[in-house]
Specification:
Layout lengths: L5 E4 L7 H13 L1 E4 L2 E4 L5 E4 L14 H4 L13 H10 L15 H11 L6 H15 L4 E3 L3 H17 L7 H12 L4 E2 L1 H5 L4 H11 L5
Parallel strand pairs: 1-4
Antiparallel strand pairs: 2-3, 5-6
Helix pairs in contact: 5-6, 6-7, 7-9
């Protein structure tokens, strides 16, 4: 089932370490090894994953290398009352998934990916990204900061959000908007920070507030 364009890994942290290792190969090398034979995955290849809180029974913590492969991390929380009512009625007689329609073709997705890569990033904005990342590597609240891969993901995500806003250039606001989604899940807090009830998101927001924004 991994030979697809979009892979949904539901409750990924319930998968065994061996399964997670196989998924890491797919995400990092765009290939799968079966009985010693390597098979290339189709392009584009996306992984969407959900996970349970780490204190749930039967969960395995995701290795840092695997977390680093995910572009962004979102915390959805609970829907508000109005949206939850909509959910109830939308599934009263049938499931909405049964009536999903394609909104983009394979070719259109590839074309958009290529267009995103052409979005201009000024040298000063790129430096701003690196300043944010370097702060995570020297923050006493963190045992592990953002890797060079994380820097690249922030660069790409900033290009993507600018593209979605119909701009062909990246603003510092784009970087700030994407920082918490791109950086937080790549960090590891120190034990002292954990006991102080500090979250990774708190650290990212604090760093964004401290680093000088280019003008």
């Amino acid at each position: 089932p991994i030979f697809c364009n979009i892979l949904l890994a539901d409750e990924i942290n319930r998968a065994s370490p061996r399964t997670q290792s196989a998924l890491l190969e797919a995400m990092s090398e765009a290939q799968a090894t079966i009985e010693g034979v390597r098979y290339l995955l189709p392009s584009p290849f996306f992984v969407l994953a959900t996970q349970n809180p780490v204190d749930f029974h039967g969960t395995y913590p995701l290795p840092e290398a695997q977390l680093d492969r995910f572009l962004i991390h979102l915390q959805l929380g609970y829907p508000d009352a109005e949206n939850e009512i909509d959910i109830l009625f939308s599934q009263s007689t049938e499931h909405p998934v049964d009536h999903l329609e394609r909104v983009l073709s394979h070719e259109e997705v590839v074309q958009m990916q290529d267009q995103v890569k052409t979005v201009h990033v000024d040298q000063s904005v790129a430096r701003y990204m690196i300043d944010l990342v370097n702060m995570t590597r020297n923050d006493p609240r963190l045992k592990l900061g953002v890797s060079p891969r994380g820097s690249l993901m922030l660069f790409r995500a900033s290009q993507a959000i600018a593209f979605l806003k119909s701009r062909n250039y990246v603003l510092p606001d784009d970087v700030q908007h994407m920082a918490e989604y791109v950086l937080a899940h790549r960090l590891i807090l120190t034990s002292k920070a954990k006991y102080s009830s500090i979250t990774k998101l708190d650290v990212v927001k604090d760093i964004v507030n401290k680093v000088k924004v280019p003008t």
